[in-house]
Amino acid sequence: MFSIVLFVSLTKAQTAEVAVSLNEQFFDTLLDAMFKNFNAPEFPIAVMQEGEKRRKGEREITSFVNIGFENEGLRTKDKGRVCNESIKLLREIDGVRTAVRFRDGKIYAPIAFSGAYNPPLIGCVEFSGWAETTIDLEYDRNSQKLIGKVRVLNVSLGGTGGIGGGLLAKLVQSSIDKKINPIEILQADKLSFVVPVQNGGGALRMKAVSVRHEIAGGVLNVYIAYEFVKA
Predict the structure, then answer these.
(1) Shortest CA distance to 148 belongs to which of 90, 59, 222, 40?
(2) Domain ranges of the chain
(3) How many CB atoms lie within 10 A of CB 166?
(4) What are the C-alpha distances in Å from 220 to residues 16, 66, 174?
(5) What Å distances lie between residue 51 and 63, 77, 83, 139, 197, CA to CA?
(6) Spatial separation of the C-alpha atoms in residues 17 and 8, rounded to whole Å
(7) pLDDT tens digit sequence for 108-167
(8) Of 2, 80, 123, 170, which is the most buried if we count CB atoms within 10 A?
(9) Does the predicted TM-score (pTM) go above 0.85?
C-alpha cells in the first residue's frame, strides 16, 4: 500500500531524499480503521449570531458561534425536544463512501455526512448527503509542515423533504471549510532521527529539511529531503 525509496545525492552537503508513496488503498484502510476504532467526527453546524444578523442581513451567513469541537454540537430546543445542530462525518451514505481519490494530478475527497438544523419557524430538520471536496497540499516553510486545505466543490443533500436545501448546502460548506482546515499531514522536525554508526564511536542525525509532493499514476508521492549531520 505504500513504498519507501531512498535517494542519496553525494554532493558537498551530504543530502538524501526519501520518497514515500501512498495509494488510494492505503487511505481506504486508514479510514476503515478510524471509523471502526473511534467515534465518528462531529462538529457544530455553522450558525449566524443575532448581532451579525442585524448588521449583515438575515440572508447572509457571516459568522460562527465559537463552541469548538464538542460532540454535543449546538443544542437548541424544538417544541420541548433537543435539536442537536451538528454535522457528523460518516463512512458511507447512499452508496457514496468517504474516501481519498487521485485524479488528474489532484486530490479529491467525497465526504459522507448526516446532521440536523433548526431553521426559524420550521423546527428541527434532519439531513444527510455528501460533499464533493478537493484537497490542496502545500509546504509551509516557516512551520516546516506539509498541510492540506479542503475546498468544498459541491454538496448533495437528501432527507430534507425539500425544506431549506439551499441554505443547508451553504451551512454544510461553511462548516466543513471552517472546522476541518487546515489539515496537518507531516511535520518535518518529527521526521528526523538518529542513525548509530556501529563501531564508529558516534551517530549521524538525519535532519529533515524540506518536504515536497507530486501526484502521478494514482499515487501521492511525498519526498522528504534530509541532511546528514554528526549527532
Answers:
(1) 222
(2) 23-186
(3) 9
(4) 19, 35, 27
(5) 10, 20, 22, 38, 64
(6) 6
(7) 999 999 988 887 777 888 889 998 999 999 999 888 899 999 888 888 887 666 555 677
(8) 170
(9) no
User: How far apart, in whole angstroms, are the C-alpha atoms of residue 194 and residue 204?
Assistant: 6
Cα–Cα distance, 37 to 174 (Å, whole number): 28
3-state secondary structure the chain: CEEEEEEEECCCCCEEEEEEEEEHHHHHHHHHHHHHHCCCCEEECCCCCHHHHHHHCCCCCCCCCCCCCCCCCEEEEECCEEEEEEEEEECEECCEECCCEEECCEEEEEEEEEEEECCCCCCCEEEEEEEEEEEEEEEECCCCEEEEEEEEEEEEEECCCCCCHHHHHHHHHHHHHHHHCCEEEEEHHHHCEEEEECCCCEEEEEEEEEEEEEEECCEEEEEEEEEEEEC
149 closest CA partner among 188, 193, 115, 109 = 109
| Confidence label for 180 from pLDDT (cuts 50, 70 and 90) | confident
The strand pair at 106-117 and 125-140 is best described as antiparallel
CA–CA gap between residue 161 and residue 225 (Å, rounded):
53
Q: Cβ distance 87 to 64 under 8 Å?
A: no
- pLDDT tens, position by position, 52-80: 444 444 433 322 223 233 333 444 444 55
Among the listed residues 99, 96, 130, the one whose alpha carbon sits nearest the alpha carbon of residue 114: 130
d(Cα 205, Cα 231) in Å, to the nearest integer?
Answer: 5
Cis ω for the linkage preceding 182 (within 30 of 0): yes
